[in-house]
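Protocol step 4 of 6.
Sequence for Chaperone protein DnaK (Actinomadura rubteroloni) entered exactly as in the expression construct, tag removed. Do not edit the line below.
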Amino acid sequence: MTRTTIDFGIDLGTTNSAIAKIQGVGAEIIKNNAGSDTTPSAVMVDRRGRLSVGRAAKERSEVDTENTCVEFKLRMGTTGQPKLFSAANRTMEPEELSAEVLKSLRRDVAMATGEDITSAVITVPAAFELSACDATRRAAELAGLTYAPLLQEPTAAALAYGFQSEEDAFWLVYDFGGGTFDAAVVNVRDGEFTVVNHRGDNFLGGKLIDWAIVEKLLIPALTQDHRVGDLRRGNERRTGMIAKLKGAAESAKIELSRAESAAIVLEDLLDDAGREFDFEYDLRRADVERLIEPFIVRSVNLCRKALTESRLGPGDLQKVLLVGGPTLTPYLRERLADPKDGLGIPLDHSQDPMTVVARGAAIFAAGQRLDAAASSAPPVPIAPGAYAVELEYKPMGPDTEPFVGGKVTGGPVAGCAVEFVSDALPPWRSGRIPLTGDGAFTTTLWAERGRANTFTIEFSDATGGLRDITPNTLTYTVGVVDTQPPLTHSIGVGLAGNEVEWLIRRGTPLPARRRVLLRTAVGLSRGASEGMIRIPVLEGEHHRADRNRRIGRLEVDPQQVRRDVPEGSEVDLTLVIDESRLVVARAYVPILDEEFEHAINLQTESVPTHEELARDAAAEKQRLAAVRRQADEYRDERAREVLARIDAENIVADIDAMVDAARVDPDAATTCGKRLLDLKAAIDEAEDELEWPRLVQEVREITEAVRQVVRNSGGPNHARMLASAEEAVEAAITAHDADLLRQRAEEMRQLALRVMDETGELALLAFDELQSLTGEMNDPQEAQQLVETGRRAAAGRDIATLRHVNAMLSRQLPTPPPAPDPFSTVRRGR
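Step 5 output, structure tokens:
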């Protein structure tokens, strides 16, 4: 058959993957060769180079970590540490591993349906960075999927839950997957839904719960009863035993969704003396609930942030749609439903959370038309003199009377007509629709809800006789459809001074396009072996460049230019992002009058090393300690709230554990780098909150110092000016306006300077400062004579002479002297 729509959807998951096919107004999962709905995202390569994907590879990963790989989705878009399969001496990048999973799913389709598909919709987390989306595109190409639009996972889930919904409402998609978390606020209205807002975390998922069970429960229990030293993720000698504990933790965690406890039994482990032992442990649901609390807090905080930014409260939402295996956990559901510590919104778990994303992707795929070149089968050839029709329509939409246009080609069309006949009982007919002189026509159809409506296209010639036409059918389904997806992270470029030039802001509907004029920070010499126009591409929201994720670079190489490009030259950058969040960039350099296509290299920096992470973590913990002290000193509740969030989300403990694990685990290193960015941004937020109480304290100290100056040296007029200035300071404090308060503080300083200038105190201060700088003056002998004159003038309170001496001494300095401190008299006790 020749497909006109994609029809197949793939959930390419961290832990498991699945593929589904549209079936009427729903979708059915295509089981793998083992009869399972999902395929573990695991790859194994044996010593002969034979590659296996799925359950066998997953089970083997628990005993042979060197020749298996799991959870590689977390490193999509990164560079620097490909997986080495040691037995075969073969390395594979994350996108190559993902491609093998996609190939396995394609084979499952071929086995089940006989089709060799070359097109499918592939889902990605909404929080995925552009570099990870680009890596997913490359994985699809490697797997033989020549046309593979990307769809955000929350959108797919919302489609699966509400494709046939006729209500107008707000929903929250709560997608807690194996490695990522997404929270998306969705508005359904008039048969269309829009993602209003999104928050997510690429490194928050079920695997973190597995590791918490291993590190907090299983390792302490095992080492207490058996002589196994230094059992930790960061110890390369213990990777085999750690892998077995991780696999057992994952299986037991799943079992706890249906039971109060789960027995873990691992046989034939070796202690330090080489003796075999068996490890048995009774994992209790209550202990796991305690461990998952910080992860739930993180997810709830992201949901609340998404709601607050959307100006919505729990009462504005109809339901929460549960997605992902961890949402089967009873405790997680209880916490989410709790109005105090959770969300307090009704939960909808009517769909299978493990396969809902794949099924939603298939529904979306049924609305995506294929060009003939992208079809999963070659087009049927048209015989000479036969007729063909080029149709313009949407295969899916909320309208029960969809619009259809088209143009008939292949032969004479004078007096010809088309008619659409539905497969309903009784059939609905459009009536004969005459063609225009060039073979064009337009009409509306009538479609029923709740099923896929197939229409036969009847083509009649000028005599009224029916003629064959290709294609001769059209299928349309009434259902909720997605509008323009939003960009989930702002995209910008890093500039000098740790600044960011934001190009396309978060929430912008896709596709999007932005043009911006930049200037080079370095020169470029034609043909040189070194030097490059290199502009970092950032993804995030922070005003400081280094707090955002660096996802790639804009590059122009010296070998690409015809002549030198001096520093400060213009670069006219155009950035285009499509609905799949795939990026095309063009850089036009006016001085060369040349445009560079594909100038963007979308790959994140190499995975950080253990040493880099340890150094960075130590520095941030010192900064956090300083912020804690200041928060206590100023008793600032806003800063304390930020610190409480850091503690509730267990950020520091997470980082400590992952820094150690990063010695041998690249996934831990990648996750640790992201958590460090979270910690840095949170500390920045606390420091920003503390800036206000620091400023208030500083201004109050200035005010007190000015009072003392006016009290000691001022007159009645100065006292009136001080009273007015104090009122202005208090008004700025009440308004919580930092800029205004700084302005009022400067006015206070100017009042002090005025009083001291009128009394001569300022001239005395200036002379004291200039005396200390005589060694820097141009003519030391003349300077010394001036100093002697100044001392006599100061002793006799000859202020006029002292001002003249100060002016002469100032001219002796190569640079202007610093302004006198108006409050030094207070500190020095003058």
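Step 6, annotate. Residues 372-377, 826-830 have pLDDT under 50 and may be disordered.
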